Structure formats: C-alpha cells, structure tokens
C-alpha cells in the first residue's frame, strides 16, 4: 500500500508499505480521508517531541472497515468509522482516572508501534474506533479528532455562566472551539485572528465579532462589548508574545482562560492580572476518551463544521499541503488528503 512518509525534515515521499496485520481485537480500515494537523507540521519540520523522521504522517482519519479481527464484536466490514488515535497503557494513575491523554506510555500513530493515518489501510483496536453515521461525509468524519481537542478545551472550564467567550486565534482549532461553544450555549463569542480569511470563517461559524489584533485594541473592544466586565471564559488558540496577557485582559474577574496553543518558547506573562482578578489559567492536552466520544456524537448529530475544510489533496500532494501550512502561501483551514 501507499504511505506518505516524512523521510527527513522538509521531505515527504510516497513509499510502499506492507498492509498492517491486524490483531484479534483490531479492525483494518480502508482510509478515505486523513487530516493534516499542527503536529504533522512538526514532524515535517523535524521539531516534534517524539515523532521523528522517518515516520508515516497523520493521526486524523475517516474510512471504512474492511477486515475485522476474530474478537471484534462492535464492527462489521463496511462500517464507516473514525479512530481515537491513542491507546493508554491502562495501568498508570492517569489511565486509571480517565486521563489517557496524559499517559506517558500511550500508543499513538506515527511511531514505531503504530503506523500513521496517511496510508491506504490503517489498523486500530476496536475500543478506539467510532462509527460515523451514513449521512456524515468522510470529510466531516475526519474532523472528529480536532473537534475533540475543542471539546476537551471547553471541558476545562468550571464556571457555569455562558454569556460570553473570547477565542484568540481562529485557525482550525479556534473555529472548532467556536462551533462547540455555540452548541454548548455560549451566547456572544468574540474571535480574533490576524488573517482576514480566518476572521471571515469565524463570522460564518457564528462569532458575534472577529477582530484583527494588529488593528484593534482587542481588550478595550471586548470590554466595551461586555459592559466593562470582560468575557466569562477565553480560549487561547494562537501563539503570540502578548497572547496570555491579552487573554487575561479580555476576561472577567473570576473568569477562566484555557490555553490550547502549544507555545514552546518562553513568553512574558503579567501574572498580577490573574492574581488581582482571581482568574484561572488552565492548560488542556488533546482529549480524554470521554471528550473524543462527545466529539464523535456531536458530528454524528450533525454539528456543522465542514466550513473549516479548505483543501482536499490526493495523497501524492501531501508535501504540498504541508508546505501551504508551513509557508502560509494560501489561505488554509483544515487540509485533508484523500486516498
Ligand atoms: N493542546 C492541545 O492538545 C492542542 C491540540 C491541537 C493543536 N494545539 C495547538 O493549538 C494551536 C492552534 O492550532 P490550529 O491547528 O488552529 O493552528 P492554526 O495555525 O491553524 O491557527 C492559528 C491561527 O492563529 C492566527 N494568529 C496568529 N497570530 C495571532 C494573534 N496574535 N492573535 C490572534 N490570532 C493569531 C493565525 O492566523 C491562525 O489562523 C496551535 O498552537 C496548536 O499547536 C493544541
Ligand atoms: Zn490533530
Ligand atoms: Zn497509562
């Protein structure tokens, strides 16, 4: 079968690989769509923490079950599915408390023990496989994984007031947070993005306003919109040196800031603003199985998130897709490859 492999930094080759053997508890999936995500970009650039070239790209997937192991009970050949791309060790304190996302021994795609999803056939244990309803396209089905990131981000918020939210950064993740937050009942959602294309997408997905942080004093504007109070919660889905301070400044007293973006450089933070306003700064890491289940349910119930998909490329053009995201040569949201 064909596989898109990062052979060395900035080089993607289509290589022949063996179709994976399946264990008794696994299914084999004929891949239909696989999404390019920020972590694939890190693998591509050679900067990923543990996915190192040579490695098969991808962890986002939709497809059809084409073979089932002897012990598989929930799936049949022909089922349309997506996969939660993590299998915890099952024994550590995090796995035992439902935080498989934090398990240091978890198995993930694109590593020596599990192929990535940019392949024609992908194996997965049935416990990690989720059905997609017949009316859900494979394109939207491939968005369950990034939507799970958004669900997990919202799950960090403990406050129950849902009058308003700010989302700093309207890339794929910020936009999916927007869709999921609207579904959860947040009324007025203010988005930011430096790119006009992304601000337009935010408005299309129901943001009350979308600001360019380079032109608008975001804190002042959002305070004005919220009668001087600030929003109930703010989600950070972009990286910039002032982004955490901006988040604190747009958030109300006792409000919560969820940090989704993976900012690996040190940035200055005016901690006093969190202290003075008794705000919480919360990290969020991928998703628990519970959040993934909810994302799959939201998609199956018809949550309309297809607008974040901007490109569909054949597997052979995976390298081009990565280049578009890396060099920002075109307006892009989620880029899918099809097989
Ligand atoms: N915590 C997790 O588990 C997790 C999971 C997935 C992604 N992430 C992280 O979330 C972040 C967003 O992911 P994405 O896939 O949406 O990335 P993306 O690159 O598609 O989106 C980022 C957006 O931020 C915008 N932007 C840049 N500077 C800005 C600024 N100063 N203010 C507002 N917007 C600005 C960009 O124009 C872009 O649209 C990344 O840092 C990614 O690594 C975290
Ligand atoms: Zn992803
Ligand atoms: Zn574990």
From TrEMBL:
Its cofactor is Zn(2+). Pfam families: ADH_N, ADH_zinc_N. Keywords: Metal-binding, Oxidoreductase, Zinc. InterPro entries: ADH-like_C, ADH-like_N, ADH_Zn_CS, ER, GroES-like_sf, NAD(P)-bd_dom_sf, Zn_alcohol_dh. SMART domains: PKS_ER (SM00829). Belongs to the zinc-containing alcohol dehydrogenase family. This is Zinc-binding dehydrogenase. It comes from Schaedlerella arabinosiphila.
């Amino acid at each position: 079968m064909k596989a898109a492999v990062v052979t060395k930094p900035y080089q993607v080759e289509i290589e022949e690989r063996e179709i994976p053997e399946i264990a008794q508890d696994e299914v084999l999936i004929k891949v239909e769509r696989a999404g390019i995500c920020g972590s694939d970009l890190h693998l591509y650039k050679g900067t990923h923490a543990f996915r190192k070239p040579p490695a098969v790209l991808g962890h986002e997937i939709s497809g059809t079950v084409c073979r089932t192991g002897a012990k598989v009970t929930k799936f049949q050949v022909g089922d349309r599915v997506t996969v939660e791309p993590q299998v915890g060790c099952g024994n550590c304190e995090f796995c035992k408390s439902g935080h498989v996302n934090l398990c240091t021994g978890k198995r993930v795609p694109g590593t020596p023990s599990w192929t990535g999803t940019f392949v024609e056939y992908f194996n997965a244990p049935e416990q990690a496989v989720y059905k997609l309803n017949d009316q859900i396209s494979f394109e939207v089905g491939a968005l369950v994984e990034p939507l799970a990131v958004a669900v997990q981000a919202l799950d960090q918020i403990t406050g129950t007031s849902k009058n308003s939210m700010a989302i700093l950064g309207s890339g794929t993740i910020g936009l999916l947070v927007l869709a999921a937050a609207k579904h959860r009942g947040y009324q007025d959602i203010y988005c930011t993005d430096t790119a006009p294309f992304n601000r337009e997408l935010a408005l299309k997905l129901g943001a009350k306003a979308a600001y360019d942080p380079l032109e608008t004093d975001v804190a002042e504007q959002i305070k004005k919109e919220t009668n001087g109070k600030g929003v109930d919660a703010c989600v950070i889905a972009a990286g910039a040196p002032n982004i955490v301070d901006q988040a604190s400044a747009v958030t109300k007293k006792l409000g919560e800031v969820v940090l989704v973006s993976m900012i690996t450089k040190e940035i200055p933070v005016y901690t006093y603003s969190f202290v003075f306003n008794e705000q919480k700064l919360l990290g969020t890491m991928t998703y628990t199985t519970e959040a993934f289940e909810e994302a799959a349910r939201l998609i199956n119930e018809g949550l309309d998130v297809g607008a974040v998909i901007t490109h569909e490329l054949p597997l052979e053009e995976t390298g081009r897709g990565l280049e578009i995201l890396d060099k920002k040569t075109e307006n892009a949201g989620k880029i899918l490859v099809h097989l």
